[in-house]
Write a structure and sequence with these properties.
The complex is a heterodimer of chains A (about 290) and B (about 45).
Chain A lengths: L1 H14 L38 H10 L1 H6 L7 H14 L2 H5 L2 H10 L15 H16 L10 H5 L2 H14 L9 H19 L3 H5 L2 H7 L7 E5 L9 H5 L20 H5 L5 E5 L15
Antiparallel strand pairs in A: 1-2
Helix pairs in contact in A: 2-7, 6-10, 7-12, 9-10
Chain B lengths: L2 H19 L2 H9 L4 H4 L3
Classes of the chains: A mainly alpha (about 290), B mainly alpha (about 45).
């Protein structure tokens, strides 16, 4: 399973960033595939990106909401919300574990030999704040005279945008150098911090800051597929906990909001106490037998 | 199939179709074809 996941992550990261003509053409890919969002975090300004970024799309719809409403355009971005909600309901955070290129980059960084640390658990709630404030509220609330907002998550925080979009573009387009200021250096600093953290802590960005992971995590208790815990087989060896990249204890909560469904725990468990498959509906409660009067 | 998941799938499918009919696809295509200056940190 681990080898299969590495293969899928590699193929998806390369396959969705497969535009190699950027040095000769218009710097970024401009074609019909950009109407489709990547299921993971992948900057659409990356010169090789074939797909759009879902977080960027949601923010830009939110940022243009007031402008569109004033102009009588009912453009709410429901296509992207529907797309992400559909994925979330089907498989929860599985895209984080299998399809997200930035998650893959963090997995590779964690392979670097160094002393490893665990994440302070309360920090996992920060990502919900990022989703609500930077992705949903600020782009609608802070608007200019024309009613247009800004994608604040991209502007202030997104390390995927800095790594995959900003750094290649400033090398490809030297004219951009003169425009770089506070926001660029702020993002470079954050990128360096996240890279260092990713060497020391498993998937720090996904667990602390990713708004897409926060959105998908809203569905983990009702997804069509799920991790199932078979209590009778468990010997409490905690092998699954040691292997989990997000610090989940599957035997305590197999449907944890932090679970990215990487399925490492399935490989780790030698007693078949965990399985993965379609969620079964809860059995209907049995009617009470009426006692004779 | 759990009922809640089924209703959510129907709900999000309706949202998706609604968005396509309201022109989200063109907006997204136009958005994806321009360089995101916020992503670079310009401004």
């Amino acid at each position: 399973m681990i080898a299969l996941r590495w293969l899928v992550q590699t193929l998806v990261a390369l396959g969705t960033n497969a535009y190699l003509l950027f040095p000769f053409g218009s710097v970024i890919y401009q074609g019909p595939l950009k109407a489709v969002c990547h299921p993971g975090l992948n900057c659409y300004s990356c010169p090789a990106a074939l797909l759009s970024c879902p977080v960027g799309a949601v923010q830009n719809f939110a940022a243009s909401l007031r402008f569109a409403m004033d102009g009588g355009l009912p453009r709410l971005g429901t296509m992207v919300i529907g797309y992400l909600g559909f994925i979330g309901t089907l498989v929860g955070r599985l895209p984080c574990g299998w399809l997200c290129p930035f998650g893959f980059i963090q997995d590779l960084l964690y392979k670097v030999p160094a002393r490893k640390f665990s994440l302070w658990p309360p920090l996992r709630f920060v990502k919900y704040g990022v989703l609500i404030v930077l992705v949903l509220i600020l782009p609608v609330a802070l608007v200019d005279a024309h009613g247009l907002g800004q994608p604040w998550f991209c502007k202030l925080l997104c390390p995927a945008g800095t790594l995959e979009g900003a750094l290649p573009l400033i090398f490809l387009k030297p004219a951009l150098w003169s425009t770089l200021g506070f926001y660029f250096w702020n993002k470079i600093t954050l990128l360096v911090v996240i890279i260092v953290l990713a060497v020391l802590i498993s998937r720090p960005f996904c667990r602390m800051l990713c708004p897409l992971g926060a959105f998908y995590s809203l569905f983990t208790r009702m997804t069509l597929v799920q991790l199932e815990f078979i209590e009778g087989n468990c010997v409490q060896c905690e092998s699954c906990v040691r292997y989990c990249p997000t610090g989940v204890a599957p035997y305590r909560d197999p449907n944890s909001r932090e679970c990215i469904m990487c399925l490492k725990c399935l490989d780790a468990c030698r007693f078949q106490a965990l399985s993965f498959g379609l969620r079964r509906p809860l059995p209907a409660p049995r009617p009470r037998e009426s006692s004779p009067a | 199939m759990p009922k809640k998941a089924l209703w959510l799938i129907i709900f999000f499918t309706v949202l998706f179709i609604l968005g396509i009919n309201l022109g989200d696809l063109d907006y997204l295509l136009n958005l994806g074809n321009t360089i995101c200056l916020s992503c670079i940190g310009v401004g």
